[in-house]
């Protein structure tokens, strides 16, 4: 196996490099966390047998066509919409990913954004820095309470379920959800109610997105969707920024069609520092940190490395997007 070369597209947690080297691979690493330019990514990959990449790497049709020799691609993320799976299938390249391990970390961020948005914490923190904390104002800086409100979840999978558990436990929130398929276990465990998409919009006091990005969800939250929501509702997105139309969200907040928003993902990413959302009183934005804990990122690195090691050792990939390729 020592003749197999693995490219790490940026500086990942060290455990990934250690595992691959210990397994006998020749590993090419980078000294920076900055993404490669596309031409460099394509050129470097041509000299390797496997690639360990992440969401901001464009593993598109052209990339795969130019690197059809690759044995395996392993993604350091639970999402893989940056990878052309159709083209990977055509070229017979298995694609690994890292689900499950970031469930709690991402649910924590969604829950934190909900609480912070409901009490305008980010805006009020900045007001202190600006010197605006002066005297007690009985009718100013008012947020909204969450107890006994209705949590709506779009995508009641692993992360959505953990978000719902937190909301039930902390605030006794009622849970409604919309999925492509019903989640019988969550309905039993959380007394969650399955509703149509329009009902989800109309009934949710907090609407939290935990769906995949695909043709059905891209741009799903646009002007039409926001107009159907409660004017007292909080919109939370920790899934993918492209699920919401950012210009429409800004307009909905300005027009009072939605009360507040908490975002871990933006459209586009990275968000520009002059984005109006960053100055809004009832908006909280963080820079896509859903998986950003030491423990979670290390586990993601382990899984990404294990996918490559397992493929070459004929043990199988623990987490694979396109398992039909290995048959």
Q: What would your notes on this structure say?
A:
The protein is α/β, with parallel strands linked by helices. The protein folds into 2 domains: 5-100 and 294-326, Rossmann fold (3-Layer(aba) Sandwich); 103-285, Rossmann fold (3-Layer(aba) Sandwich). The protein has 12 helices and 12 strands. Strands 8-7-6-9-10-11-12 form a 7-stranded parallel sheet, with helices on both faces. Strand 1, helix 1 and strand 2 form a beta-alpha-beta unit. Helix 1 runs parallel beside helix 12 and helix 5 (103-118) packs across helix 7. The longest helix is centred in the last third of the chain and has 19 residues, at 294-312. The protein is globular.
- The CATH topology of the largest domain turns out to be Rossmann fold
- Work out the helix count: 12
How would you describe the shape? globular
The tally of domains stands at 2
Keywords:
Rossmann fold, 327 residues, alpha/beta, 2 domains
How do you describe this structure in short?
The protein has 327 residues and is of the alpha/beta class. It is built from twelve helices and twelve strands. It starts with a strand and ends in a 15-residue tail after the last helix.
């Amino acid at each position: 196996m020592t003749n197999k070369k693995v490219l790490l597209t940026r500086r990942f947690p060290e455990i990934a490099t250690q595992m691959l080297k210990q397994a006998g691979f020749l590993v090419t690493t980078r000294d920076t966390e900055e993404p490669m330019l596309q031409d460099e990514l394509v050129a470097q990959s041509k000299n390797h047998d496997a690639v360990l990449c992440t969401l901001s790497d464009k593993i598109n049709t052209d990339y795969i066509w130019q690197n059809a020799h690759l044995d395996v691609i392993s993604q350091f993320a639970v999402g893989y919409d940056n990878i052309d799976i159709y083209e990977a299938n055509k070229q017979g390249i298995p694609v690994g990913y890292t689900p499950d391990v970031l469930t709690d970390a991402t649910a924590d961020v969604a829950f934190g954004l909900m609480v912070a948005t409901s009490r305008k914490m980010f805006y009020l923190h900045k007001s202190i820095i600006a010197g605006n904390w002066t005297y007690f104002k009985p009718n100013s800086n008012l947020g909204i309470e969450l107890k006994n409100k209705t949590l709506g979840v779009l995508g009641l999978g692993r992360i959505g379920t953990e978000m719902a558990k937190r909301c039930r436990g902390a605030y006794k929130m009622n849970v409604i959800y919309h999925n492509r398929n019903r989640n019988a276990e969550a309905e039993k465990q959380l007394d969650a109610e399955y509703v149509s998409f329009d009902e989800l919009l109309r009934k949710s006091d907090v609407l939290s997105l935990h769906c995949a990005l695909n043709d059905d969800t891209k741009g799903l939250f646009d002007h039409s969707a926001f107009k159907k929501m409660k004017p007292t509702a909080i919109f939370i997105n920790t899934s993918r920024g492209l699920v919401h139309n950012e210009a429409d969200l800004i307009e909905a907040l300005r027009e009072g069609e939605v009360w507040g928003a908490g975002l871990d993902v933006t459209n586009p990413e990275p968000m520009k520092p002059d984005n109006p959302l960053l100055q809004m009183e009832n908006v909280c934005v963080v820079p896509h940190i859903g998986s950003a804990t030491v423990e979670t990122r290390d586990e993601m690195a382990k899984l990404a490395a294990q996918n490559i090691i397992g493929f070459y050792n004929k043990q199988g990939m623990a987490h694979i997007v396109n398992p039909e390729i290995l048959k």
